[in-house]
Amino acid sequence: MDATPQQKLALEELRRGYDVLAGSSNTLDQKAGSLLGSASLVTGLFGTLQIALIRPDQSPWYWVGIVLVLLAFLALLAICTSTFWAKSYKIPLKADWAVIYSNVLSLSPSESIEKMIASYITWNSYNRKLNAQKAGRLRWASALLFLIVAILMLLSISPHR
Q1: What is the Cα–Cα distance from 116 to 122, expressed in whole angstroms?
Q2: Residues of 53-92 as b/e, b for ≥16 C-beta within 10 angstroms?
Q3: Is 113 helix (H, G, I), strand (E, B) or coil?
Q4: Angle 14-18-19 (CA atoms, 0-180°, nearest 5)?
Q5: How far is CA 53 from each of CA 48, 71, 155, rounded to the nearest angstrom?
Q6: Where are the domains of the chain?
Q7: Distances (CA, A) of 112 to 8, 47, 94, 102, 156
């Protein structure tokens, strides 16, 4: 029996959804890189400014602020780089001749499309979870960048003993 138009439509829509998820994953990686670059620039520029303002009688709170900025930057660095770690992003059909033959070529058109639909449903759900984890990490990294900027601005405008 040939595949029905409904099966073909379902498979095509799932393929589109899969492509969107893959594109979203790449976009999240790019955002993590941009966030890391911005944090590095801000921390470096403000850090240089803070070093220029150091005086021998600096308040202990100043040093606490500098340590907090460094710890927040290290946490941001760890979070951003963790989004780049190789994850097993699942694909609907393994690039293996035996798998392709047993799951697609040896079946009727209708059965092979049903198998592909089931595979797309499973892996789209899995990949969506991976993207949600990346997005959550980026929210934390953004909050840390805000914290870094806020602390550095407070250090810049606070009286230097």
Answers
A1: 10
A2: eeeeeeeeebeebbeebeebbeebbebbeebeeeeeeeeb
A3: helix
A4: 120
A5: 9, 20, 10
A6: 30-157
A7: 11, 60, 14, 9, 65
How do residues 76-125 score in pLDDT, each as one tens digit? 888 888 887 766 667 777 767 787 778 777 888 888 888 888 888 888 88
- For 123-139, write each residue's pLDDT tens digit: 888 888 888 988 998 89
Closest by CA position to 68, among listed 159, 144, 156, 161 = 144
Give the confidence band of 49 by pLDDT, cuts at 50, 70, 90: low
DSSP string, 17-83: HHHHHHHHHHHHHHHHHHHHHHHHHHHHHHHHHHHHT--TT--HHHHHHHHHHHHHHHHHHHHHHHH
What is the rounded average pLDDT for all residues in the chain? 81
Query: Within 13 Å, how many C-alpha atoms sit on residue 56's CB side?
Result: 0
Give the DSSP letter of residue 7. H
